[in-house]
Amino acid sequence: MKTFIELWKEGRTRFTNQLANIKPQDLSKKLGDSPNSAGFLIRHIAEVELLFAKNVFGKMDVKVDAQTLKAGKDTGEWTGLDALLSIERYAAEQLEEAITGQTDWEKVIETKEFGKKTLAEAFGRITTHTAYHAGQLAIVVKYGTN
After folding, report:
1. 50-65: burial string, b at 16+ Cβ within 10 Å, e else
2. pLDDT in tens, the chain (146 residues)
3. Which of 94, 85, 81, 86 is nearest to 8 (CA)?
4. In terms of residue numbers, what domain contains 70?
5. Structurally, how many domains does the chain consist of?
6. For the domain that residue 32 is a member of, what is the CATH number?
7. Ordered DSSP codes for 54-121
């Protein structure tokens, strides 16, 4: 169990190390014709982590309102830095608790989004999802414009 938590925390630093330097004016930045702003990406990462904690890893007390998924696109509303950092912290806490609670990493789960996976495979999926979008976030903040 400790190994999974260590892997997750280290992988997630690709995201969390950026957050201390994000400024409110960065949140509306986009890169060229890219559809997603920095604020959208932060919110999306947190929402998907919460969905994994609840729907994949079974932490049913997680509260999640997947606004970025419901909208299906960036609506420009994710510009409140404090609110974004708050949901990011909540997602981190909930996902860590959900990962810690696992005892059978070979258990197979099924979702409409990615079919049948073992919990270990699903773990790989959420860690790479966060890292993937963290890379986008870094590029948007560095090169994007409002």
Report:
1. bbbbbbbbebeebebe
2. 689 999 999 999 999 999 999 999 999 999 988 899 999 999 999 999 999 999 999 999 999 999 999 998 999 999 999 999 999 999 999 999 999 999 999 999 998 888 999 999 999 999 999 999 999 999 999 999 99
3. 94
4. 2-143
5. 1
6. 1.20.120.450
7. IIIT--TT-----HHHHH-S--S----HHHHHHHHHHHHHHHHHHHHT---TT-EEEETTTEEEEHHH
